Amino acid sequence: MTLSRIGVWLFLAGAVACGRAEETNFxxxxxxxxxxxxxxxxxxxxxxxxxxxxxxxxxGFRPFYVEWDSIPHFGGALEPGIPLxxxxxxxxxxxxxxxxxxxxxxxxxxxxxxxxxxxxxxxLIDDYGRKAGTGPFVAQGEATTFDIWPxxxxxxxxxxxxxxxxxxxxxxxIQDKLGFAQVSFILFPLYVQYEREGAVTTxxxxxxxxxxRGAEHGFELWPLFGHRERPGEWDRRYALWPLIWKSTAxxxxxxxxxxxxxxAPAAPSEGVTRDLAVLPFYASTESPxxxxxxxxxPFFGYTDRRAPYRYHETRYFWPFFVQGRGENHYHxxxxxxxxxxxxxxxxKTWVLFPAYRRAVWQxxxxxxxxxxxxxxxxxxxxxWKASDxxxxxxxxxxxxxxxxxxDNGAGSRQxxxxxxxxxxxxxxxxxxxxxxxxxxxxxxxxxPGGAVRxxxxxxxxxxxxxRALGTxxxxxxxxxxxxxxxxxxxxxxxxxxxxxxxxxxxxxxxxR
Length: 512
What we know:
Elements: H1 4-14, E1 24-26, E2 30-32, E3 40-42, E4 47-51, E5 57-61, E6 65-69, E7 77-79, E8 82-83, E9 99-103, E10 108-112, E11 116-121, E12 125-130, E13 144-148, E14 152-156, E15 164-167, E16 171-177, E17 180-186, E18 191-196, E19 199-203, E20 209-214, E21 217-221, E22 225-230, E23 234-239, E24 244-249, H2 257-261, E25 273-278, E26 282-287, E27 290-295, E28 300-305, E29 311-317, E30 321-326, E31 329-334, E32 338-343, E33 346-351, E34 356-363, E35 366-373, E36 378-385, E37 394-399, E38 403-407, E39 413-417, H3 429-435, E40 442-446, E41 451-456, E42 461-466, E43 471-476, E44 480-484, E45 490-494, E46 497-501, H4 506-511
Protein backbone atom coordinates (compact mmCIF):
# COMPACT_ATOMS: atom_id res chain seq x y z
CA MET A 1 0.00 0.00 0.00
CA THR A 2 1.17 3.53 -0.71
CA LEU A 3 0.24 5.84 2.12
CA SER A 4 0.09 9.62 2.31
CA ARG A 5 3.34 11.52 2.75
CA ILE A 6 5.60 8.58 3.56
CA GLY A 7 4.51 6.95 0.32
CA VAL A 8 5.32 10.16 -1.56
CA TRP A 9 8.75 10.38 0.10
CA LEU A 10 9.69 6.93 -1.08
CA PHE A 11 8.05 6.97 -4.50
CA LEU A 12 9.69 10.21 -5.59
CA ALA A 13 13.07 9.40 -4.05
CA GLY A 14 13.17 5.95 -5.58
CA ALA A 15 11.38 6.43 -8.89
CA VAL A 16 14.59 7.06 -10.77
CA ALA A 17 16.25 4.04 -9.14
CA CYS A 18 14.02 1.44 -10.79
CA GLY A 19 15.23 -0.26 -13.91
CA ARG A 20 18.87 0.84 -13.57
CA ALA A 21 21.15 0.20 -16.48
CA GLU A 22 24.77 -0.84 -16.06
CA GLU A 23 26.86 1.34 -13.80
CA THR A 24 30.12 2.99 -14.84
CA ASN A 25 32.39 3.51 -11.85
CA PHE A 26 35.57 5.55 -12.16
CA UNK A 27 35.46 6.75 -8.56
CA UNK A 28 36.47 9.32 -7.42
CA UNK A 29 36.40 10.91 -10.88
CA UNK A 30 32.89 9.93 -11.95
CA UNK A 31 30.25 7.32 -11.15
CA UNK A 32 27.31 7.01 -13.57
CA UNK A 33 24.62 5.08 -11.76
CA UNK A 34 22.06 4.58 -14.52
CA UNK A 35 24.20 4.62 -17.59
CA UNK A 36 22.81 8.02 -18.62
CA UNK A 37 24.49 11.41 -18.61
CA UNK A 38 21.90 12.86 -16.22
CA UNK A 39 22.63 10.63 -13.19
CA UNK A 40 26.19 10.75 -11.92
CA UNK A 41 28.40 11.72 -9.00
CA UNK A 42 32.05 12.77 -8.84
CA UNK A 43 34.56 13.69 -6.15
CA UNK A 44 32.56 11.81 -3.54
CA UNK A 45 29.54 13.85 -2.41
CA UNK A 46 30.70 17.13 -4.00
CA UNK A 47 29.74 16.96 -7.69
CA UNK A 48 26.44 15.40 -8.77
CA UNK A 49 23.61 15.39 -11.30
CA UNK A 50 20.38 13.41 -11.14
CA UNK A 51 16.91 13.48 -12.70
CA UNK A 52 13.75 14.12 -10.70
CA UNK A 53 10.50 12.20 -10.87
CA UNK A 54 8.88 15.26 -12.52
CA UNK A 55 11.30 15.25 -15.47
CA UNK A 56 13.61 17.98 -14.19
CA UNK A 57 17.18 17.80 -12.95
CA UNK A 58 19.17 18.57 -9.81
CA UNK A 59 22.89 19.16 -10.12
CA GLY A 60 25.72 21.13 -8.57
CA PHE A 61 28.92 21.33 -6.58
CA ARG A 62 27.96 20.79 -2.94
CA PRO A 63 27.80 22.78 -0.76
CA PHE A 64 28.85 25.74 -2.88
CA TYR A 65 26.23 25.54 -5.63
CA VAL A 66 23.10 23.39 -6.09
CA GLU A 67 20.52 23.97 -8.86
CA TRP A 68 17.00 22.64 -9.41
CA ASP A 69 15.72 22.83 -13.02
CA SER A 70 12.17 22.43 -14.36
CA ILE A 71 10.40 22.44 -11.00
CA PRO A 72 6.69 21.84 -11.76
CA HIS A 73 3.98 24.39 -10.99
CA PHE A 74 1.37 22.25 -9.24
CA GLY A 75 0.15 18.71 -8.91
CA GLY A 76 2.99 16.98 -7.09
CA ALA A 77 5.86 17.30 -4.66
CA LEU A 78 9.13 19.08 -5.27
CA GLU A 79 11.05 16.53 -3.22
CA PRO A 80 10.19 13.52 -1.07
CA GLY A 81 8.14 14.94 1.76
CA ILE A 82 8.10 18.50 0.34
CA PRO A 83 4.64 19.43 -1.02
CA LEU A 84 4.29 22.26 -3.47
CA UNK A 85 3.42 25.61 -1.93
CA UNK A 86 -0.27 26.34 -2.57
CA UNK A 87 -0.65 29.35 -4.84
CA UNK A 88 -2.92 30.98 -2.26
CA UNK A 89 0.01 31.08 0.21
CA UNK A 90 2.37 32.89 -2.16
CA UNK A 91 2.85 36.67 -2.29
CA UNK A 92 0.63 38.51 -4.81
CA UNK A 93 1.80 37.89 -8.36
CA UNK A 94 4.26 35.17 -7.34
CA UNK A 95 4.16 31.65 -8.81
CA UNK A 96 5.84 28.42 -7.71
CA UNK A 97 9.49 28.31 -8.75
CA UNK A 98 10.49 26.95 -12.18
CA UNK A 99 14.18 27.07 -11.30
CA UNK A 100 16.15 27.48 -8.11
CA UNK A 101 19.78 27.53 -7.08
CA UNK A 102 21.52 27.90 -3.76
CA UNK A 103 25.02 28.97 -2.76
CA UNK A 104 26.31 27.66 0.57
CA UNK A 105 22.71 27.21 1.69
CA UNK A 106 21.24 28.82 3.77
CA UNK A 107 23.61 31.69 2.93
CA UNK A 108 22.04 32.44 -0.48
CA UNK A 109 19.19 31.15 -2.63
CA UNK A 110 17.62 32.35 -5.90
CA UNK A 111 14.26 31.32 -7.39
CA UNK A 112 13.00 31.89 -10.93
CA UNK A 113 9.20 32.06 -11.33
CA UNK A 114 9.17 32.67 -15.07
CA UNK A 115 8.58 36.41 -15.36
CA UNK A 116 9.57 37.19 -11.76
CA UNK A 117 12.38 36.22 -9.40
CA UNK A 118 13.36 36.30 -5.75
CA UNK A 119 16.62 35.92 -3.88
CA UNK A 120 17.69 35.98 -0.26
CA UNK A 121 20.91 36.16 1.73
CA UNK A 122 20.50 34.20 4.95
CA UNK A 123 16.79 35.14 4.96
CA LEU A 124 17.82 38.62 6.11
CA ILE A 125 18.42 40.41 2.80
CA ASP A 126 15.46 39.69 0.49
CA ASP A 127 14.68 40.86 -3.03
CA TYR A 128 11.62 40.13 -5.19
CA GLY A 129 10.89 41.66 -8.59
CA ARG A 130 10.25 41.23 -12.31
CA LYS A 131 12.98 39.85 -14.56
CA ALA A 132 14.58 42.10 -17.15
CA GLY A 133 12.81 42.01 -20.52
CA THR A 134 9.47 40.78 -19.15
CA GLY A 135 7.87 44.20 -18.82
CA PRO A 136 6.68 46.10 -15.74
CA PHE A 137 4.31 44.90 -13.06
CA VAL A 138 0.73 45.53 -14.11
CA ALA A 139 -1.50 43.38 -11.89
CA GLN A 140 -2.92 44.70 -8.64
CA GLY A 141 -0.72 43.79 -5.71
CA GLU A 142 2.43 43.19 -7.80
CA ALA A 143 5.53 45.07 -6.68
CA THR A 144 9.32 45.00 -6.41
CA THR A 145 10.47 44.69 -2.82
CA PHE A 146 13.92 44.87 -1.24
CA ASP A 147 14.47 44.37 2.50
CA ILE A 148 17.48 44.25 4.80
CA TRP A 149 16.06 42.95 8.06
CA PRO A 150 15.56 44.78 10.33
CA UNK A 151 17.26 47.92 9.00
CA UNK A 152 15.87 48.77 5.54
CA UNK A 153 12.54 48.11 3.77
CA UNK A 154 11.38 49.22 0.31
CA UNK A 155 8.60 48.58 -2.18
CA UNK A 156 7.97 49.85 -5.72
CA UNK A 157 4.52 49.27 -7.20
CA UNK A 158 2.54 50.45 -10.27
CA UNK A 159 0.29 52.14 -7.70
CA UNK A 160 2.39 55.02 -6.35
CA UNK A 161 0.40 55.07 -3.11
CA UNK A 162 1.79 51.63 -2.24
CA UNK A 163 5.46 52.63 -2.57
CA UNK A 164 7.56 53.04 0.56
CA UNK A 165 11.12 53.27 1.90
CA UNK A 166 12.25 52.98 5.51
CA UNK A 167 15.69 53.07 7.15
CA UNK A 168 15.89 52.12 10.81
CA UNK A 169 16.40 54.05 13.07
CA UNK A 170 16.43 57.22 10.93
CA UNK A 171 12.90 57.17 9.54
CA UNK A 172 10.50 55.95 6.90
CA UNK A 173 7.17 54.39 6.08
CA ILE A 174 6.18 50.69 5.67
CA GLN A 175 2.89 49.18 4.45
CA ASP A 176 1.28 45.74 4.85
CA LYS A 177 4.08 44.18 6.88
CA LEU A 178 4.23 42.34 10.22
CA GLY A 179 0.44 42.46 10.53
CA PHE A 180 0.23 46.27 10.28
CA ALA A 181 -1.52 48.22 7.53
CA GLN A 182 1.24 50.83 7.83
CA VAL A 183 4.10 51.84 10.11
CA SER A 184 5.86 55.24 10.18
CA PHE A 185 8.78 56.22 12.40
CA ILE A 186 11.29 59.04 12.90
CA LEU A 187 14.48 58.53 14.93
CA PHE A 188 13.12 55.28 16.37
CA PRO A 189 12.24 54.87 19.23
CA LEU A 190 11.49 58.57 19.65
CA TYR A 191 8.46 58.52 17.33
CA VAL A 192 6.45 55.55 15.97
CA GLN A 193 2.97 55.48 14.42
CA TYR A 194 1.23 52.35 13.18
CA GLU A 195 -2.21 51.34 11.93
CA ARG A 196 -3.98 48.03 12.35
CA GLU A 197 -7.65 47.24 11.73
CA GLY A 198 -8.52 50.92 11.39
CA ALA A 199 -6.86 51.97 14.66
CA VAL A 200 -3.91 54.41 14.54
CA THR A 201 -1.51 54.34 17.49
CA THR A 202 1.23 56.94 18.08
CA UNK A 203 4.07 56.22 20.53
CA UNK A 204 6.39 59.03 21.71
CA UNK A 205 8.73 57.50 22.68
CA UNK A 206 8.17 53.80 22.01
CA UNK A 207 6.87 52.02 24.08
CA UNK A 208 6.27 54.53 26.90
CA UNK A 209 3.59 57.04 25.82
CA UNK A 210 0.79 55.83 23.51
CA UNK A 211 -2.16 57.64 21.94
CA UNK A 212 -4.77 55.69 19.92
CA ARG A 213 -7.47 57.07 17.62
CA GLY A 214 -9.70 55.91 14.78
CA ALA A 215 -11.54 52.62 15.18
CA GLU A 216 -10.05 52.45 18.69
CA HIS A 217 -9.17 55.16 21.18
CA GLY A 218 -7.05 55.18 24.29
CA PHE A 219 -4.15 56.54 26.28
CA GLU A 220 -1.31 54.56 27.89
CA LEU A 221 1.65 55.47 30.05
CA TRP A 222 3.39 52.12 29.95
CA PRO A 223 3.90 50.27 32.26
CA LEU A 224 2.12 52.41 34.89
CA PHE A 225 -1.42 52.45 33.48
CA GLY A 226 -3.39 52.33 30.24
CA HIS A 227 -6.87 52.31 28.74
CA ARG A 228 -7.82 51.26 25.23
CA GLU A 229 -11.29 50.70 23.75
CA ARG A 230 -12.89 49.65 20.50
CA PRO A 231 -16.44 50.96 20.97
CA GLY A 232 -19.07 48.27 20.83
CA GLU A 233 -16.50 45.46 20.88
CA TRP A 234 -14.08 45.59 23.81
CA ASP A 235 -12.60 47.71 26.59
CA ARG A 236 -9.16 47.03 28.16
CA ARG A 237 -7.46 48.61 31.15
CA TYR A 238 -4.24 47.83 33.01
CA ALA A 239 -2.05 49.15 35.81
CA LEU A 240 1.53 48.17 36.57
CA TRP A 241 1.51 46.00 33.45
CA PRO A 242 1.26 43.02 33.47
CA LEU A 243 0.25 42.71 37.11
CA ILE A 244 -3.22 44.29 37.08
CA TRP A 245 -5.54 43.78 34.11
CA LYS A 246 -9.25 44.22 33.44
CA SER A 247 -11.12 43.85 30.16
CA THR A 248 -14.59 43.39 28.73
CA ALA A 249 -15.17 41.92 25.27
CA UNK A 250 -18.51 41.83 23.48
CA UNK A 251 -17.53 40.04 20.27
CA UNK A 252 -14.57 37.85 21.18
CA UNK A 253 -12.68 37.20 24.39
CA UNK A 254 -9.90 39.63 25.23
CA UNK A 255 -6.48 38.34 26.24
CA UNK A 256 -6.80 36.31 29.44
CA UNK A 257 -4.04 35.76 31.95
CA UNK A 258 -6.07 32.91 33.39
CA UNK A 259 -6.34 31.17 30.04
CA UNK A 260 -2.54 30.93 29.84
CA UNK A 261 -2.64 28.29 32.54
CA UNK A 262 -5.52 26.34 31.00
CA UNK A 263 -4.80 23.37 28.74
CA ALA A 264 -7.95 23.91 26.67
CA PRO A 265 -8.27 26.59 23.95
CA ALA A 266 -10.21 29.82 24.47
CA ALA A 267 -13.99 29.73 24.52
CA PRO A 268 -16.01 31.06 21.59
CA SER A 269 -17.66 34.45 21.69
CA GLU A 270 -21.03 34.33 23.41
CA GLY A 271 -22.35 37.52 24.99
CA VAL A 272 -19.80 39.35 27.17
CA THR A 273 -16.44 38.02 28.30
CA ARG A 274 -14.85 39.63 31.36
CA ASP A 275 -11.19 39.25 32.35
CA LEU A 276 -9.71 40.33 35.66
CA ALA A 277 -6.18 39.78 36.95
CA VAL A 278 -4.31 40.89 40.07
CA LEU A 279 -1.15 38.87 39.64
CA PRO A 280 0.14 36.70 41.10
CA PHE A 281 -2.78 36.42 43.53
CA TYR A 282 -5.85 36.00 41.31
CA ALA A 283 -6.93 35.82 37.67
CA SER A 284 -10.30 35.04 36.12
CA THR A 285 -12.23 34.85 32.87
CA GLU A 286 -16.03 34.79 32.89
CA SER A 287 -18.45 34.41 29.96
CA PRO A 288 -21.68 32.55 29.23
CA UNK A 289 -19.53 29.74 27.75
CA UNK A 290 -16.60 29.71 30.19
CA UNK A 291 -15.60 30.15 33.80
CA UNK A 292 -11.86 30.20 34.50
CA UNK A 293 -10.28 30.87 37.90
CA UNK A 294 -6.64 30.93 38.99
CA UNK A 295 -5.22 31.43 42.48
CA UNK A 296 -1.55 32.21 42.98
CA UNK A 297 -1.44 32.38 39.18
CA PRO A 298 -0.66 30.20 37.36
CA PHE A 299 -0.32 27.35 39.84
CA PHE A 300 -3.82 26.61 41.18
CA GLY A 301 -7.21 26.92 39.53
CA TYR A 302 -9.94 25.39 37.42
CA THR A 303 -11.70 25.79 34.06
CA ASP A 304 -15.36 25.05 33.52
CA ARG A 305 -16.39 25.17 29.84
CA ARG A 306 -20.02 24.93 28.78
CA ALA A 307 -19.85 25.59 25.00
CA PRO A 308 -19.16 24.62 22.27
CA TYR A 309 -18.35 21.47 24.25
CA ARG A 310 -18.42 20.60 27.95
CA TYR A 311 -15.09 20.34 29.72
CA HIS A 312 -13.87 20.70 33.30
CA GLU A 313 -10.21 21.00 34.30
CA THR A 314 -8.55 21.32 37.71
CA ARG A 315 -4.98 22.57 38.13
CA TYR A 316 -3.37 21.52 41.40
CA PHE A 317 0.12 22.84 40.70
CA TRP A 318 0.24 23.86 37.03
CA PRO A 319 1.89 22.72 34.83
CA PHE A 320 2.74 19.58 36.81
CA PHE A 321 -0.59 18.28 38.14
CA VAL A 322 -3.63 18.79 35.89
CA GLN A 323 -6.80 16.75 35.44
CA GLY A 324 -9.51 17.46 32.87
CA ARG A 325 -12.56 15.64 31.57
CA GLY A 326 -15.06 16.58 28.88
CA GLU A 327 -16.53 15.93 25.45
CA ASN A 328 -13.71 14.71 23.18
CA HIS A 329 -11.23 16.10 25.72
CA TYR A 330 -9.25 14.25 28.38
CA HIS A 331 -6.19 15.38 30.39
CA UNK A 332 -4.37 13.50 33.11
CA UNK A 333 -0.98 15.03 33.90
CA UNK A 334 1.31 14.09 36.76
CA UNK A 335 4.38 15.80 35.39
CA UNK A 336 7.08 15.15 34.77
CA UNK A 337 6.36 11.46 35.40
CA UNK A 338 3.27 10.79 33.29
CA UNK A 339 0.88 12.72 31.06
CA UNK A 340 -1.98 11.39 28.95
CA UNK A 341 -4.34 13.54 26.92
CA UNK A 342 -6.94 12.99 24.22
CA UNK A 343 -8.02 16.16 22.41
CA UNK A 344 -10.28 15.93 19.36
CA UNK A 345 -9.01 12.44 18.55
CA UNK A 346 -5.29 13.15 19.06
CA UNK A 347 -4.02 10.77 21.76
CA LYS A 348 -0.72 11.85 23.40
CA THR A 349 1.31 10.19 26.14
CA TRP A 350 4.44 11.48 27.91
CA VAL A 351 6.51 9.40 30.33
CA LEU A 352 9.34 11.01 32.32
CA PHE A 353 9.12 14.16 30.22
CA PRO A 354 10.93 14.58 27.87
CA ALA A 355 12.21 11.00 27.83
CA TYR A 356 9.30 9.31 26.02
CA ARG A 357 6.48 10.70 23.87
CA ARG A 358 3.87 8.91 21.76
CA ALA A 359 1.02 10.41 19.74
CA VAL A 360 -1.68 8.64 17.71
CA TRP A 361 -4.18 10.37 15.40
CA GLN A 362 -6.22 9.77 12.27
CA UNK A 363 -6.85 11.88 9.16
CA UNK A 364 -9.57 10.44 6.97
CA UNK A 365 -8.74 6.76 6.40
CA UNK A 366 -5.07 7.24 7.28
CA UNK A 367 -4.06 6.50 10.88
CA UNK A 368 -0.70 7.74 12.13
CA UNK A 369 1.49 7.32 15.17
CA UNK A 370 4.70 9.03 16.24
CA UNK A 371 7.07 7.75 18.93
CA UNK A 372 10.02 9.75 20.27
CA UNK A 373 12.77 9.21 22.82
CA UNK A 374 14.33 12.45 24.06
CA UNK A 375 12.63 14.24 21.16
CA UNK A 376 15.09 13.20 18.42
CA UNK A 377 17.44 10.42 19.62
CA UNK A 378 14.78 7.96 18.46
CA UNK A 379 11.99 9.21 16.18
CA UNK A 380 9.52 6.97 14.33
CA UNK A 381 6.32 7.75 12.46
CA UNK A 382 4.00 5.03 11.17
CA UNK A 383 1.09 5.37 8.74
CA TRP A 384 -1.49 2.73 7.92
CA LYS A 385 -4.99 2.42 6.51
CA ALA A 386 -7.49 2.57 9.33
CA SER A 387 -9.77 0.28 7.32
CA ASP A 388 -7.00 -2.35 7.02
CA UNK A 389 -4.88 -2.28 10.20
CA UNK A 390 -3.40 -5.70 9.42
CA UNK A 391 -1.66 -4.39 6.29
CA UNK A 392 2.03 -3.48 6.44
CA UNK A 393 2.48 0.12 7.64
CA UNK A 394 4.55 2.78 6.01
CA UNK A 395 7.13 4.27 8.32
CA UNK A 396 10.02 6.67 8.69
CA UNK A 397 12.50 6.17 11.55
CA UNK A 398 15.62 7.95 12.82
CA UNK A 399 18.27 6.59 15.18
CA UNK A 400 20.07 9.89 15.61
CA UNK A 401 22.75 10.47 14.40
CA UNK A 402 23.50 6.98 13.11
CA UNK A 403 20.71 5.91 10.77
CA UNK A 404 17.53 7.00 8.99
CA UNK A 405 15.23 4.51 7.27
CA UNK A 406 12.05 4.71 5.16
CA ASP A 407 9.52 2.08 4.12
CA ASN A 408 6.35 2.85 2.14
CA GLY A 409 4.69 -0.45 3.08
CA ALA A 410 4.61 -1.56 -0.57
CA GLY A 411 8.15 -2.82 -1.05
CA SER A 412 10.08 0.44 -1.37
CA ARG A 413 12.72 0.76 1.33
CA GLN A 414 15.67 3.06 1.95
CA UNK A 415 18.17 3.66 4.68
CA UNK A 416 21.13 5.95 5.16
CA UNK A 417 24.02 6.01 7.62
CA UNK A 418 25.07 8.46 9.01
CA UNK A 419 22.06 10.77 9.24
CA UNK A 420 22.43 13.69 11.69
CA UNK A 421 20.27 16.23 9.77
CA UNK A 422 17.19 14.36 8.55
CA UNK A 423 15.31 14.42 11.86
CA UNK A 424 15.78 18.21 12.21
CA UNK A 425 15.03 19.22 8.59
CA UNK A 426 12.42 16.73 7.27
CA UNK A 427 10.72 19.35 5.07
CA UNK A 428 13.74 21.41 4.04
CA UNK A 429 14.83 20.05 0.66
CA UNK A 430 17.65 22.59 0.28
CA UNK A 431 19.29 21.56 3.56
CA UNK A 432 18.81 17.85 2.84
CA UNK A 433 20.19 18.05 -0.71
CA UNK A 434 23.08 20.38 0.11
CA UNK A 435 24.43 19.00 3.38
CA UNK A 436 22.83 15.58 3.92
CA UNK A 437 24.96 13.65 1.36
CA UNK A 438 28.19 14.56 3.18
CA UNK A 439 27.11 12.28 6.02
CA UNK A 440 25.80 9.45 3.79
CA UNK A 441 28.65 7.00 4.31
CA UNK A 442 26.36 4.14 3.34
CA UNK A 443 23.00 4.19 1.50
CA UNK A 444 20.59 1.43 0.53
CA UNK A 445 17.61 1.48 -1.88
CA UNK A 446 15.18 -1.35 -2.52
CA UNK A 447 12.26 -1.22 -4.96
CA PRO A 448 9.13 -3.43 -5.33
CA GLY A 449 10.31 -4.67 -8.74
CA GLY A 450 13.35 -6.28 -7.14
CA ALA A 451 15.97 -3.58 -7.86
CA VAL A 452 18.36 -3.23 -4.91
CA ARG A 453 21.40 -0.96 -4.66
CA UNK A 454 23.82 -0.35 -1.80
CA UNK A 455 26.57 2.27 -1.84
CA UNK A 456 29.50 2.69 0.52
CA UNK A 457 31.75 5.77 0.88
CA UNK A 458 29.89 7.89 -1.69
CA UNK A 459 29.87 5.22 -4.45
CA UNK A 460 33.45 4.09 -3.92
CA UNK A 461 32.01 0.60 -3.37
CA UNK A 462 28.62 -0.31 -4.84
CA UNK A 463 26.66 -3.47 -5.37
CA UNK A 464 23.25 -3.84 -6.92
CA UNK A 465 20.94 -6.53 -8.19
CA UNK A 466 17.58 -6.97 -9.87
CA ARG A 467 15.82 -10.18 -8.90
CA ALA A 468 13.21 -9.80 -11.62
CA LEU A 469 15.85 -9.50 -14.36
CA GLY A 470 18.41 -11.82 -12.77
CA THR A 471 21.17 -9.18 -13.06
CA UNK A 472 23.77 -8.04 -10.54
CA UNK A 473 26.81 -5.75 -10.35
CA UNK A 474 29.67 -5.09 -7.94
CA UNK A 475 32.16 -2.22 -8.20
CA UNK A 476 35.23 -1.43 -6.17
CA UNK A 477 35.75 1.97 -7.75
CA UNK A 478 37.79 1.64 -10.96
CA UNK A 479 39.89 -1.18 -9.50
CA UNK A 480 37.53 -4.12 -9.87
CA UNK A 481 34.04 -4.74 -11.26
CA UNK A 482 31.93 -7.87 -11.70
CA UNK A 483 28.63 -8.22 -13.59
CA UNK A 484 26.04 -10.87 -14.31
CA UNK A 485 23.59 -10.24 -17.14
CA UNK A 486 20.03 -11.54 -17.60
CA UNK A 487 21.26 -14.69 -19.38
CA UNK A 488 23.50 -15.59 -16.45
CA UNK A 489 26.70 -14.61 -18.27
CA UNK A 490 29.33 -13.22 -15.92
CA UNK A 491 32.13 -10.79 -16.66
CA UNK A 492 34.66 -8.95 -14.61
CA UNK A 493 37.01 -6.05 -15.07
CA UNK A 494 40.23 -5.00 -13.39
CA UNK A 495 41.30 -1.41 -13.99
CA UNK A 496 40.40 -0.86 -17.67
CA UNK A 497 40.83 -4.48 -18.78
CA UNK A 498 37.63 -6.47 -19.35
CA UNK A 499 37.52 -10.27 -18.95
CA UNK A 500 34.25 -11.72 -20.27
CA UNK A 501 33.34 -15.22 -19.17
CA UNK A 502 31.17 -17.19 -21.59
CA UNK A 503 28.28 -19.20 -20.30
CA UNK A 504 28.90 -22.92 -20.82
CA UNK A 505 26.36 -24.36 -23.33
CA UNK A 506 25.90 -28.16 -22.81
CA UNK A 507 23.63 -28.55 -25.85
CA UNK A 508 26.27 -27.13 -28.18
CA UNK A 509 28.95 -29.42 -26.68
CA UNK A 510 26.80 -32.51 -27.24
CA UNK A 511 26.43 -31.77 -30.97
CA ARG A 512 30.17 -31.81 -31.55
